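To illustrate the input format used throughout this study, we show a single complete record. The first block contains the structure-token representation of the backbone; no residue identities are included at this stage. The design step must infer an amino acid for every position from geometry alone.
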């Protein structure tokens, strides 16, 4: 069977394979992005040529998301787009949406292979088994992508790469039976500057609006020695900053027999030579204690940037969401961080229009957000997610009301974010330079401060992936601070 883009022949575990082109597309969170990068590197190591998703490829892998109905719709759209780009290609659906809707996807004529969570590590052998079995079947692909059999009339009326008669290769396990951390890893990232490192999977929280515990399973942590080895490889490849991430990062270590936790992991990574910054992904507020904050403050590589998930500033709404803290407890966590760090960046997520949210409850949230005064807020309009308790709750909010409340909080977010950025004017900042930009005819190198505020220095003084120190002079744009570079930081 001829494959698009085939050339020389390689051997994988005794299987004769053609040089094939693979394209990957990621949807969803930073954990998904990490796993997509890992799958890409697995394919590359097996001899596949990686090409942009919009190009013609032999294999398209879509790492799907299921956090909202909108995310699922986008996942389906990308799978069907891949089929249209090359009707002869093998289409792989992977990830959370697969885990949530295996049966429905198995009937989708656009999809050839489905791989659930904790099976992404097996992508290459699954693909090669698929190719081997397809070759043995005697099927060949016409120019319009319809499979043809050597036996006339065996497969009739197909306009996609497969038919329901030809079952999908399915590698999905019941996620509630998953106990082991999936063996995925990366050795480099494009850009060589900042790397997201997945250290944990799964969630035990069961918030009433969230499907993730059902698609990702229970908490599973990566061994510290495995994390350290990966970080060492990334540092050798040029990365200077790592971002520790997971589905529920605060739960790191809860399943490990040795009793280690997130602080232990950070302490193990901190001494590594070449590591300049450690940044943390989203945290559950309850992890922030005086001990936790003071311990982090004593590690100079830890960035003072904390994303504390909130979702609502009203206690009654938090109860319906099954969030396990009160607004008073959340506020105390913010006070602890501000006591341990000088002007830390505190960011959060907020859902508006959750079932039952009255005007009074929304106003409580608005006032709470204003009082805490975040650097950034990610505002989400509540989206009904089938399979969750919130989906069948009374008091569903009209979309027009959600949109109006979202606009109010987005305006508040812009105001608070601008105030936080401007608070650094006249201060000395450390910037990890990442990319050049041209604004109004002038060239700059831009990057992020330890607080994850975007900053720029005039081009000519330092190159990409360099740490520099400069004084914040003015606002180059509403979102970028202009600094006069003082020195390169080694």
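Output of the design step:
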């Amino acid at each position: 069977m001829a494959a698009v883009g085939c050339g020389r022949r390689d051997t994988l575990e005794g299987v004769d394979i053609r040089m094939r082109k693979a394209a990957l597309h990621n949807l969803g969170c930073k954990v998904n992005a990490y796993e997509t990068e890992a799958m890409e590197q697995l394919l590359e190591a097996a001899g596949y040529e990686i090409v942009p998703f919009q190009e013609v490829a032999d294999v398209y892998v879509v790492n799907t998301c299921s956090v909202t109905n909108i995310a699922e719709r986008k996942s389906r759209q990308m799978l069907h787009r891949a089929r249209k780009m090359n009707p002869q290609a093998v289409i792989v659906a992977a990830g959370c949406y697969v885990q949530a809707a295996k049966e429905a996807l198995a009937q989708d004529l656009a999809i050839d292979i489905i791989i659930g969570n904790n099976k992404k590590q097996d992508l290459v052998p699954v693909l090669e088994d698929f190719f081997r079995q397809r070759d043995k079947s005697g099927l060949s692909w016409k120019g319009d992508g319809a499979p043809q059999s050597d036996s006339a009339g065996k497969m009739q009326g197909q306009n996609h790469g497969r038919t329901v008669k030809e079952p999908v290769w399915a590698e999905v396990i019941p996620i509630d039976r998953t106990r082991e951390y999936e063996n995925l890893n990366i050795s480099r990232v494009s850009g060589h500057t900042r790397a997201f490192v997945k250290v944990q999977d799964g969630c035990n929280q069961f918030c009433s609006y969230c499907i993730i515990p059902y698609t990702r399973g229970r908490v599973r942590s990566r061994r510290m020695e495995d994390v350290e080895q990966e970080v060492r490889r990334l540092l050798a490849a040029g990365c200077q900053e790592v971002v520790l991430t997971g589905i529920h990062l605060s739960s790191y270590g809860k399943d490990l027999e040795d009793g280690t936790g997130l602080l232990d992991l950070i302490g193990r990574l901190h001494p590594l030579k070449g590591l300049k910054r450690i940044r943390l992904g989203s945290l559950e507020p309850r992890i922030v204690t005086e001990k936790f904050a003071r311990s982090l403050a004593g590690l100079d590589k830890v960035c003072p940037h904390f994303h504390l998930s909130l979702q609502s500033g009203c206690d009654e709404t938090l109860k319906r969401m099954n969030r396990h803290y009160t607004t008073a407890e959340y506020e105390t966590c913010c006070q602890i961080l501000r006591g341990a760090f000088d002007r830390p960046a505190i960011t959060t997520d907020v859902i508006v229009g959750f079932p039952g949210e009255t005007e009074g409850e929304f106003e409580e949230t608005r006032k709470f957000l204003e009082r805490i005064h975040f650097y950034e807020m990610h505002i989400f309009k509540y989206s009904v997610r089938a399979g969750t308790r919130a989906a069948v709750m009374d008091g569903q909010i009209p979309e027009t009301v959600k949109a109006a409340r979202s606009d109010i909080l987005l305006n508040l977010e812009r105001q608070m974010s601008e105030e936080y950025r401007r608070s650094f004017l006249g201060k000395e900042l450390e910037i990890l330079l990442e990319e050049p930009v041209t604004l109004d005819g002038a060239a700059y190198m831009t990057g992020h401060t330890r607080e994850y505020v975007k900053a720029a220095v005039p081009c000519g003084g330092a190159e990409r992936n360099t740490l520099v120190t400069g004084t914040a002079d003015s606002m180059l744009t509403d979102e970028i601070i202009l600094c006069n570079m003082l020195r390169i930081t080694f």
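Structural context for interpreting the output: The two ends are 55 Å apart (CA to CA). The CA atoms of residues 282 and 292 lie 15 Å apart.
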